[in-house]
Amino acid sequence: MAASSKKAAAPSGRAAAPTKKAAAASNKVAAPKKAVAPKKAVAPRTAAKKSAPVKAVARKTSASGTPAKATATKTSASSAPAKATTRKPTPAKKTAPAKKAAPAAVTPAKATPAKAASAKAAPAKAAPAKPPRNESHTALVRRARRINRELGEVYPYAHPELDFENPFQLVVATVLSAQTTDLRVNQTTPALFGKYPTPEDLAAANPEEVEEILRPTGFFRAKTKSVIGLSKALRDDFGGEVPGRLEDLVKLPGVGRKTAFVVLGNAFGRPGITVDTHFQRLVRRWQWTDATEPDKIEAAIGGLFPKSEWTMLSHHVIFHGRRICHARKPACGACPIAPLCPAYGEGETDPEKAQKLLKYEKGGFPGQRLNPPQSYLDAGGIPAPPLGATIPSAPAPGASAPGAPAPVSAAPAPGSPAREVG
Q1: Which side of the chain, N or C, has fewer Cβ within a 10 Å radius?
Q2: Nearest 5°: phi and psi at 70?
Q3: Which of 6, 258, 290, 329 is labelled catalytic?
Q4: Which of 333, 398, 410 is nearest to 370 (CA)?
């Protein structure tokens, strides 16, 4: 019986050997499964985003690999648990990188709004840059003179838009132009100068008759008092002649520095800056000065230009203010000096819409003078109609380009002065 038991034990011992081989085989099978850990090296993919997490993942996977071997050897006594242990770490390894990848995906999601915000801010930066606040005086002088040169090319025919034949008519017309348009003055002065051609005649005129003539210009009582008063001063103090000095002109009733410079520059050829409402508005838009008082504006602008350019500078700026750079709706999209203007964008920037805002010869409308200079007519300007006449309408869009020669309006109405060119 003992022999049979030993023989029975022998087979059991032999049976144990195969179990060790099976365990070894299971270890061999488990080894390639452990090699899956390098395959799961999703770390290189995440490493493209962040290098630091890659090292951390590699270390963790190597650390987790060690206990995996231990569990495989410990549980090799039974193959079923070994398979269970090998299957359990596999999904754990897959889920671990997925959880770590989630925060990495959050980073670009947070960066996207920042990029979108910067993209939205881009159009604001695309607008024309304004001159720096600390613009040097030299840079300001260069920019201002360049603007004047550009305007000189656009308005080579710029001129005073008051009809006059002598200094007396010019000084009276300038006084009457306060609080009204030059067009209205030009339509009114023919009757005035037709009845009172000299200072002596106007000085002796009946105020009520003069008021009736000047009624269309507005504030006709105050203007009647001014023109009769300055006519008496010319007759009594200057022998019926308009003086050619600034200090003498400002002594006349109703004559200030603006009126004096208009007369000096256009009747006597002496340089002067005319600071009217258009001039004040534009020089502040262009940041030539921040002054608001006419005297200070005159001094500031006078320091930017040679004295010889003062008169034509005034014409260029005033012409531009009346035709394109309007007070309420500037035609920025049709402005020739838009790249130099710090106020670009305050008005209409669409070229087609801006084109419809142009006035006078730029928009195909009549000008303000009944008797404009020949250069203005050659440039396509249309003379203004006399008082009471119908103003010709502008051509239809696309009929003719702005500034192109246009037909002259009909002849003056009966009794009105003939139109003289010059």
Answers
A1: N
A2: -60, -45
A3: 258
A4: 410
Compute the distance between CA of residue 392 and CA of residue 407 in angstroms, rounded to an integer: 10
Distance in angstroms (rounded) separating the CA atoms of residues 177 and 175: 6
182 flagged as catalytic: no
Angle at 20 between CA 18 and CA 23, to 5 degrees: 110
Q: Is 201 a catalytic residue?
A: no
Task: Return phi, psi of residue 398, to 5°.
Answer: 90, -10
Residue of 6, 276, 329, 359 with catalytic role = 276
pLDDT at 26 over 60: no
Counting beta carbons within 10 angstroms of the beta carbon of residue 183, is it exposed (0 to 12), middle (13 to 18) or buried (19 or more)?
A: buried
Coarse DSSP helix, strand, coil percentages of the chain, rounded to the nearest 5 percent: 60, 0, 35
pLDDT digits (tens, 9 = 90+) for 325-349: 999 999 999 999 999 999 999 999 9
The per-residue pLDDT for range 242-265, each reduced to its tens digit, is: 999 999 999 999 999 999 999 999
State the Cα–Cα distance between residues 375 and 371, nearest whole angstrom: 12
